[in-house]
Amino acid sequence: MATHSGISGLVKVAANTVAEVTSWTLDQSNSLIEDTAMGDTARTYLAGLDEFSASIEVFWDESDTNGQVALTPGSSVTLILYPEGADSGDTYYTGTALVTSHSVSGSFDGMITASIGATYTGAVTTSTV
């Protein structure tokens, strides 16, 4: 069984690598459809539709115009997440995503950071480089 370090991971907006990424998360969920009827002794469900969302944490870089700056709320982007890097044979996740949030925060004794949220519209494809 293989394990991987996140040190080589990266995020791309189409062909452009997002600068200063510190972490990212891909969430997949499925909405359940209840099909419980009168007379049943327990609730029952069917699988519904899949939903995919992503969150990206970065050190804020206002000069990253094709990466961080392109991830503004309301924009539709091709969002590609690479867990282990972009070398031949590496796995990645891709799909069209709508950016839902972009917040920037800072403190006197730390780096200025940004958090970006996105929801994929449609399925996320898993592929290899």
Just name the CATH architecture.
Roll
Radius of gyration using CA atoms only: 18 Å
Structural class: mainly beta
Uncertain stretches of 5 or more adjacent residues:
none
Question: How helix-rich are the residues, as a percent range?
Answer: under 10%
Q: How many structural domains can be distinguished in the coordinates?
A: 1
CATH H level: which superfamily? Answer: Hcp1-like
Number of helices: 0
Give the averaged pLDDT, no decimals. Answer: 96
Topology order in helix (H) and strand (E) letters: EEEEEEEE
Hey, roughly how much beta strand do the residues contain? over 45%
What do you see in this structure?
By secondary structure, the chain is mostly beta strands. The protein has one domain (6-128): Hcp1-like (Pnp Oxidase, Chain A). 0% of the residues lie in helices and 53% in strands. It has strands at 10-13, 16-17, 21-34, 45-59, 76-82, 91-105, 113-120, 125-128. Strands 1, 2, 3, 4, 5, 6, 7 and 8 form an eight-stranded antiparallel beta sheet that branches. It is globular. The two termini are 20 Å apart.
Question: Could you list some keywords that capture this structure?
Answer:
Pnp Oxidase, Chain A; 53% strand; eight-stranded antiparallel beta sheet; globular; 129 residues; single chain; mainly beta
Architecture blueprint of SSEs:
Elements: E1 10-13, E2 16-17, E3 21-34, E4 45-59, E5 76-82, E6 91-105, E7 113-120, E8 125-128
Antiparallel strand pairs: 1-2, 1-5, 3-4, 4-7, 5-6, 6-7, 6-8
